[in-house]
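re: that complex we talked abt at group meeting.

here r the seqs, copy pasted straight from the sheet so there may be weird spacing, ignore it
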Amino acid sequence: MKVWRYGDDVNTDLLFPGKYTYTCSTPEEILPHLFEDLDPSFASGVKPGDVVLAGENFGCGSSREQPVVGLKAAGVAAVVAKSFARIFFRAGINQGLPLVECPAAVEAWKEGMEVEVDFPGGRVRVGKEWFSFPKPPPEVMEILRDGGLLAHVEKVLKARKGG
Amino acid sequence: MAGAILARKAGKEKVETGEILFVEPDILLSHDNTAAITAKVGRLLEEYGLAVPDRHVIVLDHVVPPATVKSARNHKAVREYVDRYGVKHFFDAGRGICHQVVVEEGLALPGTVAVGSDSHTCTYGALNCLAAGIDRTEAAALLLTGKTWLKVPAGILVELRGRLRPPVSAKDLVLALAGKIGASGANYRSLEFTGDLDGLSMEERLTVANMGVEMGAKAAIFPADRVLEEWLEGLGVRREAWEGVSPGPEEAYERKVTLDLSSLEPMAALPHAVDRVKPLAEVEGLEIQQCFLGTCTNGRLSDLKTAARILEGRRIHPRVRLLVTPASRRVLEEALAEGVIGTLVAAGAVLLPPGCGPCLGAHQGVLAPGERCLSTANRNFKGRMGSPEAEIYLASPASVAASALEGRITRPEKYWREER
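got the structure back, here u go
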């Protein structure tokens, strides 16, 4: 697995340029442009199981879920950041992509170190050291367990109809 | 105020910061992204029906008129959805920018909750509305359930003192605030305004609330006061139709930020971050190739009038393109009636149809590598208006108009004429 390290205030235009937002919405359309203006090597280099590490306010800017859809489709295991922008954080939950807020883990990382995320357990390993982060509330865990918001909603609607 | 609104919606006496509540938003907004939203749940919509035909507000504004067959097809799919599911509030391409249309149509009301799959949904905070951006997937789920979860945000009290001295404007105010708070300083929080608000018009408040998200805020809320009440009356909204909320005691807030309006000067946000804010004077003289007046931040009548006051009887610099995009058809009609459009066009401006225009770099005035644009928009991220090697500076309508005259970033004071 590879760790992709980025800085603070990485905004949605860098993650997925606005010019594509009304023409690309499927994972196949999104993937080639993922992180295009941030790191042109990302889209072709990213592999399933990779982790993205970032600073403060990751995903600030537009309400744009394509970067999250793209990361999920690429098989990225998690994004670990010092903090996330609010809309981006919700998008992570809604797509079922683990977004971990853990400044200590980001600080501890050095080139070459492995990162492993135990999301339900609320902990992340950097190199040999484990760091804990606040577990998401039960309402949110349920959405994640169901595989994202739409799968969750479908389950709820079915239950309502059946009941 | 965010807490009070959420408590009311959830039918609770009191709520705690951080508490998660399930609420039924009063409106759900989407725009050109509607087709992408409905496509996610097409099958489920067929099976379970649309839960929110009266609450789903759709405005086509991002790429209007369509620039490609793909976007034309996208608009067509939206119209088909509207007809099929009987969506009550649909506004086709040309009506204006979604946030301006929602406000003009009286669809965002004090004390209510609005969500929208656009980050600048926070604009309606000017109307004492808890308005927050959500993503497409969440909007899709709302179509089916009419409900979503919202966390009660911590609040930051923003106290505004004194009065703005024109041509210093609400845009300079909010840029100064973004500089002070930072791009993530209000993340997950509600910015709530208090202080000397009597002198701040609704259009000015809309400009300020619009940029709440640029500080990470979930919402940016003004109190329901006389200014708002009169304005809603002017829109034809009955007084019985709404009940506003007021800011809580100062102790209820995480912190307080105070801004003295009377000492503010024209400000600018430098590339490529909205919180890289400096007095405009510090970047004065930088050559620009494009000027953009418009957007959900600064495309309203008062903004166009301010620019016209500076441009009247003058010609813009021959090496500058000045693009003007009224925020809505209503703004355009009023600006036409008042002679404002004539003044702008006579000065050399290119008039674009009401909509988001060049702001998001999809069409109408994208930038080439190495070009620099002075814009009244709310975002100057790298690549936003086209080439990632272009630069976007953000400023007020007055600063943009003055700079268009000189072909360089210019303080507006020397061209400012008092109202006659």
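couple things i noticed - The two ends of chain A are 45 Å apart (CA to CA). Residues 57 and 109 of chain A are 18 Å apart (CA to CA).
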